[in-house]
Amino acid sequence: MASSLISRQFALSLQKNLWLSAPGCRYVSKAAPKTQVEFDYDGPSMKTSVPGTRSQELTKQLGDIQNVGAINFFCNYDESRGNYLVDVDGNRMLDIYTQISSIPIGYNHPALLKLMSNPNNLSTLVNRPALGILPPENFPNKLTESLLSVAPSGMGRVQTMACGSCSNENAYKAMFIWYRNKERGHNIPSDEDLSSCMVNQVPGCPELSILSFMGAFHGRTMGCLATTHSKAIHKLDVPSFDWPIAPFPKLQYPLEEFSRENAQEEARCLEEVEDLIVKWRQKGKPVAGIVIEPIQAEGGDNHASPDFFRSLRNIACKHGCAFHVDEVQTGGGNTGKFWAHEHWGMDDPADIVSFSKKLLTGGYYHKDELQADKPYRIFNTWMGDPSKNLLLAEVLNVIRKENLLEEVTRSGKALINGLYELQAQYPGILSRARGQGTFCAIDICDDATRSSILLKARDKGVLLGGCGDRSIRFRPALVFKDYHVHIFLNIFNEVLAQHK
Amino acid sequence: MASSLISRQFALSLQKNLWLSAPGCRYVSKAAPKTQVEFDYDGPSMKTSVPGTRSQELTKQLGDIQNVGAINFFCNYDESRGNYLVDVDGNRMLDIYTQISSIPIGYNHPALLKLMSNPNNLSTLVNRPALGILPPENFPNKLTESLLSVAPSGMGRVQTMACGSCSNENAYKAMFIWYRNKERGHNIPSDEDLSSCMVNQVPGCPELSILSFMGAFHGRTMGCLATTHSKAIHKLDVPSFDWPIAPFPKLQYPLEEFSRENAQEEARCLEEVEDLIVKWRQKGKPVAGIVIEPIQAEGGDNHASPDFFRSLRNIACKHGCAFHVDEVQTGGGNTGKFWAHEHWGMDDPADIVSFSKKLLTGGYYHKDELQADKPYRIFNTWMGDPSKNLLLAEVLNVIRKENLLEEVTRSGKALINGLYELQAQYPGILSRARGQGTFCAIDICDDATRSSILLKARDKGVLLGGCGDRSIRFRPALVFKDYHVHIFLNIFNEVLAQHK
């Protein structure tokens, strides 16, 4: 059944006109200058509560193999399309969480189905190279047409990696290497450097640090984890580094109504950053780099102003620290710009920008001087996966062809305005609606109410995720349109009415 | 040109008889009980020295984007087949390095081309799920038919990850979590645990350690890197942990001729391991786990006896440390058994076994008690990639159908005997021939001679890799047969004759 449907989709995708309607699917055509049609369902369709019987059976089965405490339900990815995720019990949900913000243009986009069924791409799927030593012929061109075509300002260099954590780990290493060469005044290590590093000791393994922020999330491998401070469950029982942690501004929303208070709060945090840099230098653990998310995501969708980031970037320059902007969750278009840091309006926003999730491959951009001075310093077996670069190149084509960043800005306005309205309507439940593009969030009065709301919304066909202590985060795909916003708002309203 | 050829391969792969010969390709049929035929080239074919003009151009182009100091040459993966890697200048090389030991059954294996061109698999290629929360319907079955079908003795649980480093990082975390719960006597953290871990401090982020061995390689992210001690270039300038590092036995080869001396050396190392465990416990940084490779690969193909590993496993048990066997490079069949640790003949070889490379997906198996007690402790966005599980399931089918482990044992004997002969013939250049299955190595008199031999062999059509200070490692695919061994030995002999 599932496989027959995907065969049908496959057949459709190979036809000249990719955008055929099919039974149960919505065919939308607009008079816009570029193609703005979509292969999508009409709306949610719920047959059982979630997880249904089949999901429960499979969860039990998987429980013999893995911890299944985080499993929501099992999915039928063959039947899922556009903004709709279909589960194994036949429930079809409007997906505003998109696999923890990692599905860029919806499920089974015809352009991607076509790409992956092109026999010319077969060898990329079956022969994964060690990119650092034996890249494929098209590798420089693929990087140019995919990652470099959306490179942040001032960055012409990019290193691919397999996932977000690896990307940040290697970005940190690049900053440490850069910083030590700067300290040395050259890039020739001493004999003592070389021998001591083999046994984890100074000076070869120096006592450098990365400054991060409370509430930050930068990944879960041990280097990243030392800069992650969003939830105890991520960090508990894992050894860490004594690195400085600055407060992230706790702003009041809507931002424009509290500009004076927020500016004060940001100034307080910036002062603390400088104090920590000085203090850690005195401790003998100088700050090689500062890492920050443009919007703290996992930590609760915490925003800061462009002024804050500009000042922070200046502090980094002043103290000789590298400035690393982690766009793993914010990158890829959800904020209405391809990179969230573009909202800061700076020509020189960062030294390193890392990415993953919606970019489908991990990696990081960097300025020339952040490139490791020798081969094999930033290295591993695969260093990414060319099959993901293929997908990304096509995703970027679709984003351009379908003007998806404009769509995001449009849907984002509808979404935030809808959230403001609901917040006015349910002041006892909702507060602090905030967002940029469709990268929005709202706070719920308490964690228990949030859980209940998330489950009820899911049973009514809307899939959402939490973040922070009591926020709901909105992370739709870039193909999330006005009318999807309204489907969501209607259902959310129903759920809230039951909680009032 | 390249794409027309791959289309031809694709077409062939879809025909009922997958094993057609094609111009320039070898059609081998044996009278063995199961299919033992192969889609492969006749032998190396060299048109230029390597890297040729086209590779040099592309290296220059990539140099504007990345550090290219480690690039060997650029490849034409469409034209590569079986044991032969074709470069962009039309050179065809017998590949005995296989993308740093990560290609299990050769290039463009017809079974994998067929698999990836099956429209039923399209949705797996374009919809990458967040496996920890929303797995696909077939996920438990795919795990069962792929990873669990080759699970190490005593292990029914497996966690997938994106790469080798992530696999080891998460395995270490699992050991830390397990150890701390053991110390507590229960799994309920104190309020102090929960608050202190948020700022990287004890007791929430405890001062636990992992014991590793000199010469080990376990990856390059910061947790793994603290247990890697093979080359300074990997570790230089990166902060690390003060964790214990034991000597790995320096054995004399052939092992059977030096059993008394080697047993003494192993006893010395084991004694040191126990001393370090006691010392680090006294330091307040108890050893939560011991990590070791069955054969130190990157560090120079250093072997130890089954007795050594059995004793080490006992020491781990005695001192309450978890025992983690890192099979990232040794796993997947090259040693003649699917896992190198199977050569130890133990029912209970380890608590954790990690893998990547030839398994095509990263991950680790573990005993029940090493499963994290709560969800989201071992977690990330993707937690692997189902498209790699698909490939792995088919690779395992091919290994079984084509009896590839038996082939490896057979080719491995031919390889090691050939190396012994060459070593006798060129005693001034070669020494310490060693290996298990085709996982072999030999030492060269010095690093400069090694470099020269590697380049000359490459120009004659044999691709090899180095390891340690002056070793050459052999890492062919599992489809490397007797006659490939002889092609290699003939060319290697020619190269050595020039150096004599």
UniProtKB/TrEMBL annotation, chains A, B:
<dbReference type="InterPro" id="IPR005814">
    <property type="entry name" value="Aminotrans_3"/>
</dbReference>
<keyword id="KW-0531">Neurotransmitter degradation</keyword>
<comment type="function">
    <text>Catalyzes the conversion of gamma-aminobutyrate and L-beta-aminoisobutyrate to succinate semialdehyde and methylmalonate semialdehyde, respectively. Can also convert delta-aminovalerate and beta-alanine.</text>
</comment>
<dbReference type="GO" id="GO:0009450">
    <property type="term" value="P:gamma-aminobutyric acid catabolic process"/>
</dbReference>
<dbReference type="GO" id="GO:0034386">
    <property type="term" value="F:4-aminobutyrate:2-oxoglutarate transaminase activity"/>
</dbReference>
<keyword id="KW-0808">Transferase</keyword>
<dbReference type="InterPro" id="IPR015422">
    <property type="entry name" value="PyrdxlP-dep_Trfase_small"/>
</dbReference>
<dbReference type="GO" id="GO:0005739">
    <property type="term" value="C:mitochondrion"/>
</dbReference>
<protein>
    <recommendedName>
        <fullName>4-aminobutyrate aminotransferase, mitochondrial</fullName>
        <ecNumber>2.6.1.19</ecNumber>
        <ecNumber>2.6.1.22</ecNumber>
    </recommendedName>
</protein>
<dbReference type="InterPro" id="IPR015421">
    <property type="entry name" value="PyrdxlP-dep_Trfase_major"/>
</dbReference>
<comment type="similarity">
    <text>Belongs to the class-III pyridoxal-phosphate-dependent aminotransferase family.</text>
</comment>
<keyword id="KW-0663">Pyridoxal phosphate</keyword>
<dbReference type="Pfam" id="PF00202">
    <property type="entry name" value="Aminotran_3"/>
</dbReference>
<dbReference type="InterPro" id="IPR004631">
    <property type="entry name" value="4NH2But_aminotransferase_euk"/>
</dbReference>
<comment type="subunit">
    <text>Homodimer; disulfide-linked.</text>
</comment>
<dbReference type="InterPro" id="IPR015424">
    <property type="entry name" value="PyrdxlP-dep_Trfase"/>
</dbReference>
<keyword id="KW-0032">Aminotransferase</keyword>
<dbReference type="GO" id="GO:0030170">
    <property type="term" value="F:pyridoxal phosphate binding"/>
</dbReference>
<dbReference type="GO" id="GO:0047298">
    <property type="term" value="F:(S)-3-amino-2-methylpropionate transaminase activity"/>
</dbReference>
